[in-house]
Design goal:
Blueprint lengths: L5 E2 L7 H9 L37 E6 L2 E8 L7 E3 H4 L9 E2 L5 E2 L5 E2 L3 E11 L2 E12 L7 E3 L1 H6 L3 E3 L4 E6 L2 E6 L2 H23 L1
Parallel strand pairs: 3-10, 4-9
Antiparallel strand pairs: 1-6, 2-3, 2-8, 4-10, 5-8, 6-7, 8-9, 11-12, 12-13
Length: 210
């Protein structure tokens, strides 16, 4: 069973902070048209399907640059409340000048039980390719759990980059000033990751039964 990832410090690292986050909507005022950000229109059409095997049910898995390292096998998950960097990946990135922050709120959803995060760190994340490339300082929660993915970009990153994902078109589009940047998929990698997940889940189920 694959669960949605929830928890972490997206809504605060304490019960009081999370309650305050929920109450902010009570004072929310609907913005008028003039108050809305003037972002370019992001759309998907038939031309976005070139090179895509359309009879698929593949996850959207991309390669992005984190702290000057090209990191493959990043799962785009708009159901995740946090951005995740797995410890096995984190250990391969040479850190310098970045500060760690302790995290007390656990994550839920990896295998149906709580996963205590190791730390939280803010790293530069680059999406796209020049001239349509954009960089944002992005908060990642580091977890020590097996995964066929190297990282997960969840709702916080998608919001910060004003990004829209289409699993059908196997693309992630995001704003770059008044233009739109594109990050394409790798369906072969997505399928290998899925096979790895199923294999690991099978081992875990056998372990629980014995």
């Amino acid at each position: 069973m694959i669960h949605m990832i929830s928890g972490g410090v997206t809504d605060g690292d304490s019960g009081r902070a999370r309650k305050a986050h929920g109450r902010r909507l009570e004072n929310f005022k609907i913005s008028k048209g003039a108050d809305l950000p003037q972002d370019p229109v992001i759309s998907f059409g038939p031309e976005d399907l070139r090179g895509v095997v359309t009879s698929h049910n593949d996850a959207l898995v991309v390669t992005a640059t984190i702290a000057n390292y090209d990191v493959a096998r990043i799962f785009i998950d708009n159901g995740s409340s946090v951005n995740v960097l797995f410890k096995s990946t984190f250990d391969q990135i040479k850190m310098g000048g970045f500060e760690f922050e302790p995290v007390s709120t656990p994550l839920y959803g990896f295998a149906g039980h709580a996963i205590p995060p190791l730390d939280q760190i803010v790293l530069p994340l680059y999406l796209g390719h020049k001239p349509r490339r954009v960089t944002k300082m992005t908060t990642f929660t580091v977890v020590d759990t097996p995964s066929t993915y190297n990282g997960i970009l969840g709702r916080p990153a998608l919001k910060d980059f004003r990004a829209v994902a289409s699993t059908y078109h196997q693309k992630l589009k995001f704003t770059v000033g008044k233009e739109v940047g594109v990050l394409c998929r790798d369906q072969r990698v997505a399928r290998r990751c899925y096979e790895g997940i199923v294999k690991e889940e099978g081992k875990e189920r056998v372990w629980r039964l014995t």
